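Lab notebook, bench 4. We co-purified these components, and the gel suggests they stay together. Before we commit to crystallization screens, I want a quick structural picture of the whole thing.
Request: model the full complex, all chains together.
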Amino acid sequence: MTAIATGPSGKMKRRDVVRALLADRGKLLAIGGLGAPAWDITAAGDVPENMPLWGGMGGAAMMGLGLAMAQPDRPVCVLTGDGEMLMGIGSLATIGVKRPRNLSIIVLDNEHYGETGMQETATRHGVDLATMAKGAGIADTRLVTQPAEVAALRAAIHAGAGPLFAQVKIDESSEPLVLPPREASILQARMREAILGKAAHLQ
Amino acid sequence: MPDAATDWPDQIYALLKEHDIRQVALVPDAGHSRLIKRCLADNDMKVATLTTEEEGIAMLFGAWLGGEKGVLLMQSSGVGNCINMLSVPISHRTPCPMIVTMRGDYGEFNPFQVPMGNATQTVLEAMGTLVKRADAPEDVAPTVNATLRLAFNTYRPTATLIGQRVIGAKTFGK
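Here is the predicted assembly.
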């Protein structure tokens, strides 16, 4: 497992967390919420099994639900930001009812809207996303603050005992942009081909 | 003898089976209640009751990534909740069929249903959705069939609007 450094705040660096969670990923499918999480999963490797989002704010977790229900034998991991998760917070209830065992939702919580000028989000003021997920009926909810907890989280993502929700506190410093393709038809077609083979294009 | 005036929800269900729809996302509407019951009773359909309709646009995108076809059922007021999320199927070029029961249409009693009901077709079309209306019971099945075919054959959001003349208006005892 790669080392996870901490930033000026003493919290973990986001790219190190994401790289560790996506290491040796096997059949894992990853959805990256718009903004920094999309760049983070791309920095870890711009592969067809990634769906980096350029928009649809608030929809990442529900995209994960649809994908997890369609591909129940593959782990599906949604990596998104605190602002994006807050916009779609009701989807935790929808997911808590459907209980897909292969779905993990990981919120990279820097307590700010990073793409728009670092305005504070509600988590900066004490809103506890892990407790909200617990209240929505997601049994395995975690607050992750220490590098040592990340390896266990990675193992849980692959274990298929979900749904799983983790709020990972990360340093707020921004990282260099690592952009995925911007043409979204390519992003969906390459992921579908990786999952379904060439038949994806004849469905 | 089947009667289109009352059997149109069963005809929609039959179309969902014919098109191999495996995921059904919905926010309930009285007009869809019979169809919802049929879907819930079907073990080959994964039915998700949403907290807001835009969740369904996102869910259908995820379903398609994984090779499953889905449909979104909602009433016209819910269309307003979906608008920005429609950028997802538009930009990714993925199917997104919606079956919408109209409020704020013929004989509406509740003033709050009128603004969104009156704007439903306009705002969907402003967001690149192919919209077809069914205002008679016998038109529902062919229109829904067209909506499903256009979505899955041409990769875009599509919608059937089922008019209040088909469903009947809620009168609140007045």
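Chain A has one domain: 14-111+123-202. Worth comparing against the SEC data before the next meeting. The longest strand of chain A covers residues 103-109.
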